Amino acid sequence: MLIKVIQPIDLNIFDESHLIMFEESGTPDNRNIKVLTVRSLLRGIYQRMFMTIRQPFILSLNPSLAMMGLIEGLGGFQGLLPALIQPFFGWLSDRMKRKPFIVLGSLLMEFSLILFFVSGLTSSFFFIIPAVILTASSALAMPIIDSLIAESVETSKRSGAYNKILLAATVPSIFSTIIGGILADRFGFISVFTISIIIQCIIIFIVVFFLKDGPIEKGALNFSELRSFIHRNISPSLKLRKFYLMNVIDAISVGLGPGILYGLLRLNFGFSNSQLGILASVNAVSMVLTQILISRKIMTYNVKKLLVLSNVGYLIYAGGSAVSNNFFVFVLLEIAMGIGIALWMPSHKTLLVNSVTKSERAEAMGRVRLYRGIFGFPAPFIGGVLYEQFGYPVPLWGCFILGIVTTYYIYFHIQVKENRLV
């Protein structure tokens, strides 16, 4: 699914009193959910805008599409670099605290945006590699935030909490992606980077002063446990192994086509930044409306069925993109993809966190990204090579075929009982 790409989110909340985090047998205090919702709201204003123009910006510095694909594969939000660091920092946060790592991720993202600004100011590709590395490093906080969400609400409300935060991240992107495209066309890419830098500063302030750490079931922090952690990453339990294999197939599928799609549309059809912004906005509208429709009842839905339905939307998107050359058709395809994303994210996260213990959540979340990154990172580069050698539709047909494989695997091999892996 593309959110698997575009990562890629999220009022009386600023209460500095001590936050008592939810334990399985206690009463939840969801003030952290409110803080994380505001964080996602602000992040949604700039991140989809930033991610929409990032590939066109990199291509404006004259690398090949294959080189851009390699950069995405190594340092995109689902690239190799974040995949390598997320399990380790997730493991650390399960044994220390969540907040310091969330703050670190926010700071790294700010430094990344500054380097993108400098690259735009100087029209130099030199700063792109370190900027992408910093962006990738900032993703260390993603599984930790997911774990903090799970610890802040009752088990039965986790899908709703994930959906709420995803909704908060998505709503502002309805408008911000179009605005970002228009700004990039009229005033240059650095106008988007400037806005992003300012908003990320506000996010850092909120996280530092209002996000609270609560008691967690800490695991051991020693060499023996580190060795066990490495072994678990090499050989996870059987039920999780199937879940991770599902993600591996999906990551390769996404990387081949949707992971570089905006670059493909820019090169093959000459879509402007404003048009790309419209596509991202339609995707966001579709996500928001779907989330609103399912938000009240998502806790009662069978997550396996939601994953299958999500992939149906993905197949429509991938197959339609392979045969279309019309902007209006791409607009319609973004609707299907938005529905797929809205179904995938909360059900995917809920299935995983319900299937592991509290002290393993961030590590397990990080391991998902580890496998997606390791096996999926060559896919954007391969997609770029396929485009340059055989033309536009070939990488998209490749991701369509793999999408069929993913759907088949979920339906026949992912066994779920009471929204837990068995």
Features:
2 strands; 18 helices; two-stranded antiparallel ribbon; single chain; globular; Growth Hormone, Chain: A; mainly alpha
Question: Secondary-structure element order, as H and E?
Answer: HHHHHHHHHHHHHHHHHHEE
The helix content, as a percent range, equals over 70%
CATH homologous superfamily placement: MFS general substrate transporter like domains
Tell me the domain tally. 1
What do these coordinates show?
- The protein is an all-alpha fold and 422 residues long.
- It has one domain (2-10, 27-212, 229-421): Up-down Bundle (Growth Hormone, Chain: A), CATH 1.20.1250.20.
- Helices cover 74% and strands 1% of the residues.
- The protein contains 18 helices and two strands.
- It has helices spanning 31-60, 65-75, 80-95, 99-122, 128-138, 142-151, 158-170, 173-187, 189-210, 223-234, 238-256, 261-269, 273-294, 303-323, 327-353, 361-376, 378-390, 393-413; strands spanning 416-417, 420-421.
- The chain has a two-stranded antiparallel ribbon.
- A hairpin with a 2-residue loop joins strand 1 (416-417) and strand 2 (420-421).
- Helix 4 packs antiparallel against helix 5 (128-138).
- It is globular and about 50 Å long.
- It starts with 30 loop residues before the first helix and ends with a strand.
- The model is unreliable at 2-28 (pLDDT under 50).
Summarize the structure.
The protein has 422 residues and is mainly alpha-helical. 74% of the residues lie in helices and 1% in strands. The protein has a single domain (2-10, 27-212, 229-421), classed as Growth Hormone, Chain: A.
